[in-house]
Fold these 3 entries.
Entry 1:
Amino acid sequence: MTTVIEKAVKHFDTIQNTKLQEYFVEEWDTTIYYRPSLTWNEQAKLIDLSTQGKSSEALIETLVMRCLDKDGKHIFTSADRTTIRNSVDPDVIVKIVGRINNTTKSDAEDVEKN
């Protein structure tokens, strides 16, 4: 008999293991990839930054945490945060993070079915 926790874990595994979502960033002439969901620890970090009034830091953290290459590897490192903060167009960051955050888990489940 499957327990509720086993079902919950299986559901999250299914979401996490769906095909990566992709988004072409015109300004960078680059396609970024991302998963449609975060772990609780990742989400908690972003929530903490936001509730501390550090919205711009939360945006940058989202970019670093979620942007992947086609193989699922992070395209930004922790060391890139300062460069992103000082030398990358904030409007593009907001656009990318908005796209990533507006991808719902049901979108991922639709992709998985196709």
Note: Residues 19 and 111 are 7 Å apart (CA to CA).
Entry 2:
Amino acid sequence: MWQSNFHYYAALSLPNGDQVGEVRLKVDWIPALRWAEFERYLKDSSIEPNSASAVIEPIWDPEGTPPYIGGAGIRLDKERAVAVSFPLSYFSAALSAASSQLIASGALSVGQEIAYRIYALADERPQPRADCGVAIVALDEPPAIETADLSSLLSEARMVSSIGGDENGNSDPADLARMPVLVPQLVLDEATALGQQVGDIETGGILVGKLLRGADGTLFSRVTAQIPVEHTAATQRSLRFTHATWASVDAAIRLRARDEIPLGWWHSHPEFCHLCSPEQRALCPLAVPLFSQADKDLHREVFQQPWSIGLLLSFLGKKQPSYDVFAWHRGQIEAVNFFILPGEARHSGVSP
């Protein structure tokens, strides 16, 4: 259950200062709530998940005056301080949706540059508590967390900078606070082989493994296998899971009998670039690794757990793809660095 007595708005303007208008933002708070409860669980796993009574409230802009905000915060108990704060970037999805409505109405043009400020106004009417469906569903049955020697694993692993890193392979400093993700080379090899087999359509699979804790208390995830998905609806630009897909995945996990949990998914972006000339590829905005809005929507809908990851294979006209990992961080889906564990290549469909 959660409560918010504020509505959020964006004041939009053109670069020259002309006002475009003001729009009310429809903010999806569920990922933020899940993340806040996850952080709470990591700090104290003895607390019952359903004892939380979340309150969402604005964080006022320290360089301005109310009602303009610099982010939002979640209190998990009325008597306590803000447990987790979220930056203005958390409002990006809501702002994008509102901008699309302005484009449809003709108030904005496609590609038009705009500036914005976000503000919050209190709703004077008493607001009933909202059942967000996560109260906190993500942790009603906390996953089993085993112990493992993270230092030893990392000493053998190779770090890969996803597309969120800079040109020198360095990630944002905040990346150090994210949960490390370890993926065996074997899993990447199997996924690559499957992507090569299907050619010009997308394919994918479910990543299974375990949540682990190192000696210093660091929580990390280790992928142990990929389960190729069946009964999907796939095209050159999309992949959709069905009920039959999940039935086959559940059966595979039970047959493996290794106490694994779903950690996320992987999918490929096919090598459709080979249909274009080198000159066209050089100018194409799609000729880069891209976790698209459709990918994010699927991740948001299906892989809601705070530890869920998405592995993207981008062929981009090449036989060997690039690899990027996306994960939840403070309620947003972001590219993260990950670690590849060494191993010999096999293409058996499911790794040991």
Note: The chain has seven helices and 19 strands.
Entry 3:
Amino acid sequence: MTKVTRLTLDEDGALERRRIHLREISDDVDAPLDTVGQDLRTARLRRGDDLATVSRVLKIRKDHLDALEEDRPDALPGRTYAAGFIRSYADYLGLDAVQCVERYKAEIAGRSDPAMTPITVIDEDADRRMPHGWKIMAFIVLVLAVYAAYQFAVSADRMVNDKPVEPVPTLTKRPVAHKPPIKQVATVAVMPAAPDATAATAVPPEAAPLPQGQVYGSSNKNARVVLHLTDAARILVLGPPESDGRSAVFINRTLNPGDSYRVPNFTGVTLTTSNAGAVQVELDGAVIGTAGRAQETAEAISLDPQSIMDRKNGNPGR
């Protein structure tokens, strides 16, 4: 026999909602009542809902709802939480929540209360945004990024703080060796010996032309300052400091002889290099000089055109 539930309309013509008695969910009104968990399960099945749907709506873990329906209080975090679950579940199903809670307390009376365990709130949106595998990948990427930043900081610190090597002295005239006075025998004058070959001016060999190297910063149009490498050296060119104190890195690499870098035409650009003597500075098409002496570490040298001219004219200020 199928039970028919009468639906009534309120004054506004809408359906009047009322609490469903537990016996109304059974086909046979004379059938004995089951446990609260079985009543909840029967009411859910009649609604056509699955546990996953109820879990998302009530934000209660699916395994906790399953434990309620299967009368396994030992799988729940505690009586207080279990009573709250019963109240929320019964209210969702349209049952008498107060009666369900009282019946549940009577059913578990005399049982020991399991230790309270923390409840994990289900965040379905977060699971959809980032699956578990992507969380692992994001963690690995973060670790690699931190390691790369550390290596960059160590390299920059080593480049700046390395002890500079004493510069090689420039080859100029060698001093003339002093000869002992020439003795005269009788009236025969002894002609002085021919000048020693070491007293001649040492002329350095003509420098070999630089190879045609790689041009970096070619996208920097109308560049007034160009750096030319006569020997291998690492250069670091930074932009002006931003509001957070950081500076943009325009280039940070080792260039080979013949390579060049076109400096962006910005104010506040600086150069740091491990071999200042190997970096020739060209301004408006004319080579002004080098960034420093050979094998000398230069740190944060201003590449502003006016600062370059000031240094050329003897003003050390940047």
Note: The two ends are 99 Å apart (CA to CA).
